[in-house]
Amino acid sequence: MDDAARRLLQRLVRRIPAQTLKTTLDKWGRLKAAQRQSMDFTQSKWALTEKLLAICEENELTLKHIAELEMIHVIENPDRSMWYALQLMDPEDDAHSVELTQFKEQFKSHLSELVRHVSIKIKKHTDEAVWIRIAWGDSFSRPNHLKPTYVVHHLQTPYVFVTGLTSKLKLLLTQALVLSTRHQAIKDASLSGRKLTAIRDLLMRQYQQVFPTKYPSPLAESNQNATNPLIDKEQAELSANRHQMACEAFGSGMLPQLQSAVYKLETKFRDHMNKTMTEREEPLKCVVKFASTSLLESLRHCASSGIASTPVTPLLSSIPLKGRNYFVITDNGPGPSSQTRQPQN
Amino acid sequence: MESPQNSVARTPSNSAIVQRRSKSKSYRQSYRSCLGAASRLGLTPGLTARRLNSSRRALKSQVITEKVNPEHLAILVKAEWQLSYVTPLYQFRHTQLKSYSRQLSAFIAAEKQQGLAVEVEGSQSSFRVSFSVVQGMAETDDDAETVLIQIFSKPMFAKQDEPQRSVWSGWLTCINGNPDYLHSLPKGFTCLPLFGSSGAEVLTSLVKSWFQQTFDCCFGCLEINQTSLQWLAALWTNCHTESSLKHLKMIWTIPVVPPLQVTYTVDPQDAWELWMSVRMDQLDKSEEEEEEQARNIDIEEVTRFMQGLKSHFYRHFRLDLSAGNLQQVSTALGSAKFSGKIKISSSRYIITTLALLTECALLKMPI
Amino acid sequence: MEAASTKGVLSHLSLLEVQARSRRSRPQQQSRVTELKAKVEALKVQKEQLEAEIQTHQNLQKLRSSLDKQCADEDDVEMEEDSENSELLRLMARHTQLKDLLHAHHLIGGYDVIKTRQGKGVCVSLATAYEGVYLDTYNLEIDLKPAVRISRHNIPPFIPVNSLAKENNMQTHMRAFLDALSQHLNAFAGRKQELKLLKEQHKSVEVMESNVLCSILVLMFTVPKEKTAVLCTLDYIDHSSCLPKRVHLECEDKQLPDSPQWKKNCSLLMETPVHTALTAMRKVGDIV
Q: Which ranges of the sequence are coiled-coil (chain C) (predicted)?
């Protein structure tokens, strides 16, 4: 084991919580049965690290194997870092027939062509997701395994999720992705968050959306107020209506746990009470950030309780509708990565 | 007026006893006009004159740095302070600070010996307390001089020659205290209603209990309410031309499940122009005012300013911010939180801000 | 007691024992009788209930047939006047009628469409089914004015909704677009269901690879005698179909894919759903 492998292992043991260390090592499968039994998981992290270093030395494990262990841990605990969504565009005719082996080969060869020193690991997870770990180097230095990039992609879908990617390397990665998935372009999807599952579910539409149908199913949390006899029928109807509209905009039941949405507003100030500002030429520049442990559920509650008016403004309903949580709003129609102020429906 | 360099600090002792009824009346009046050194308390001519002076002075930074020891100012603008109110101190003397330093040191040592966990940032050997007067902060003759308390300590394993580090600091102040109230205090009471602390919670509570035992006073937490936060937003925005805001950031929480937090950050120039537009309407009405800055800021202007910001927000998101609570206001000049934490980053506006908070403290006080 | 004297003491004793036993069992018999009587009662009640149900059902059917015959008949359906539940029965009959209609509607490829936004838009529901089992329902909200445009839907991103709309010229041929989309969705749901059934029914076949669209399936079979592994790739190039357009075999035994038996298996895999094809292959002993 070289120094880089030792350092990676040390950092990894420090990061993996003591109670999950055992199962993670079991999944890794690089320890012999006797070695596994000799591990005492009640010991301090420092002692465990020393013990593991000795075992790895004994089994002649290398940096590659340690990287594998890290990958197992990250796949199980993806919610630790910031994930960004990218969107592949203009698929070639054969894009739909790209299968895993072919993709693996293509991706590795394309990326290796672009960067001289790069270490790539590809693993398929049980949920059909392809996980890629990339440790980057350059023409002079060997791959840095302490700052790897992780990429998650479901083949045949237009979305790619990345974390730990610097803007310098983004171009190289996206180029390799575009070529190996048989697409022509890729763009920023303006969606990011700490919860990989949330941004994935939102884009893959894996949550319960509500539509105006002929046979409306009774919505789960349908107004509890209805039991209160004091509330007259009209009010109950209004509130049921608000609830329906809130669910149509954001979905019903448990929603993807998106944690924030940011709007950069550069729009004119209009208020009949304030002539001076309304007559001003320049837009008012501000940034609005909404944050919650589950933003879509908070917004749904805002709309159903009447704090936000219904029908829900397109600015807010665009979050689930377009699968984005970063918007630039101007009065003059779309620019790059922006959206018109005018509602589209 | 005493010279700021005067080495003997003054503890105003008031013999004039005003009836309680009139005291509480003046409270209500000041509350209605919604606090603040710069608020228009146009109720008694004398009061208005004094307030007018204070708001003008706060904008002249040189005055403050000339008056107040720069080291003291540096301490005040450095930290974020947790605020409390304090009821008037009985038999407090600004001349006795040396003795208080010794007493509080001994008190902390005794508590530590009793097994009370006085562990701050690892193990500390001993604590040294220092009381000092911050000269030149008081705005009127009625205001007692500000008192600064610092606790120093040396880490257990520090070298011999290593200097002691400040591990806790706090202050007691009264700026532009309501004169009616101050005059109403019986003899022997000193009113320093605003207490700020920064450092380990353990030390804060020890200092508080020593004050309680020694000066027969009591402490209570002081929130910075919605109105005060709005006032600060407006006061800071008003300063933008002299000292850049960098941004005007306001945080609301909306009471839904799960709670929603809205952070609204406005470009400083745009915020200032919006502020001036709500000011201007007012200026048109009273053109005889000699100078913009000298004119008092009215609560109505503050409300209109906030209303403008909220309506711009509503126009886009159709979400009513009034349904939520303003939690925090921050600019490059300072930040204030509803929980009673304040940071004043620029010494220029320290007096105005502390005057506003003194009023909050006096209002919150049970007696 | 004559018998006793003639047959001896032992037999007398056994006689006594029998008598005693029978005497003891009498109360037991008694309780058994009540038990049976209760059961008879219960069964009678059940019979009455069933009779009532039959009656109701018959009534319902009568109602249904008259409903079906046509409501145009001015004189309303005759009902037994004494039936206090006549209103309920009428509703139930109407309900079954509507359910059947809906089913027929789906069978002939109808879509559930309702107007939204005061007629400026519609919401279409597309149900998917596989072998008589209803699967997921997908929805599309389509604006009609000012232009025909899909505003919202819950179709997964790997189904090319927009290109289908373009190809079929949704602006003018809504029906063609919906048909194509429905075909895609049903094929996807079918492939997904087949994969699920395959995993349930064929534990000995290993699924080496699959994707979210279920358009590529790599399976590993084991040939029973030689224990050789066969890698089989099913390529569902036509996404609107449940059957693969290409089947490719790989095996260490180079001869195997070209053998007539396995050629037959290939065409079987291309013609029948994968899980049924595998059952057939297993039956003839080609795979474990």
A: 33-63
